[in-house]
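quick one, 358 residues, struct below
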Amino acid sequence: MTFDRNQPFNDLPLLPPAFELESKVVLKQAIGANRVLANLRGLAAQIPNQAVLISSVVLQEARLSSEIENIVTTNDELYRADADADGNTDAQTKEVLRYREALYHGFDALKTRPLATNLFIEIAQRIKQIEFDVRAVPGTALKNGRGDVIYTPPVGEAVIRNKLANLEKFIHAEDDLDPLLKMAVMHYQFEAIHPFPDGNGRTGRILNLLFLVDKGLLDIPVLFLSRYIIANKADYYDGLRRVTESQDWENWLLFMLRAVESTAQQTFDQVNRIRDLMEQVRERVQREAPGVYSKDLIEVIFRHPYTKIQFLVDAGIAKRQTASGYLQALAKLGVLRESKRGREKYYINDALFAELVE
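---
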């Protein structure tokens, strides 16, 4: 098979790869990655309300994954916009928020549905907010910053659907392949198929997290894989290219395993710090403002760095006037910082914000 980057790669090999994936060095790296990932899963399970992690921590993965596609927003704008229901923010920030919405959709869908082409399509549609299906017309090519074609994905709806069906079969095959290796192979294959007109990179990165949940390696999709990809962007794209051009699976697998191990450890450390911070604040509020304290209140102010009075009302903690008094009391303690933007008043958890954006 001769690869020509200017021609549609309709000869993209079907899965599983016709190469030995579980080399000694790959298996050694997989042991380390699985161990750290198991530690993260165990720690996340200890958080009393995992919505704390899903709401705010996942938003950082959304921001970083979107940044890979040059969709950039500030942390402040992102969290402020997420706190508001009116959608009054810039287009870049809205697109990052849609990434998290797409991840939520996939996470909920896994409870009743398998990872399959129809779900892939739904995720991509939610990211882009456009109704589309798999590509049916030619003309798609991936280019570098100079405008040179670096890869031309398969063309023809029937060809693409056949390769997606094969990918589904591989994902759900009952075999002995380590799930992390299967995730790495799945990610390459999805990106190589490049089934949609847009949103393929972000959809593929969401599928990584959903796959880990589906295989029981995580209970919730909390992992910053995009952080590692951004820090090692050249190696990421080089790894994809080398699989395509020379079937160099080993280096690709090692890259993805290192990404899992590194980001699982970083996320583990971050979740630990957030958990410790929550406990410190809980003890302080209970000690210094017992009339305000409740476990539910602490969880609300750690669910999102920008808290509003309505959040307490929606959580059933208090009516508006009382909820306002609670937040003002926390601001006086220095636990929160009051900030007004136009007619909207926010109570910002600066310590949580600092941990999230580190």
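The first strand starts at residue 142 and ends at 143.
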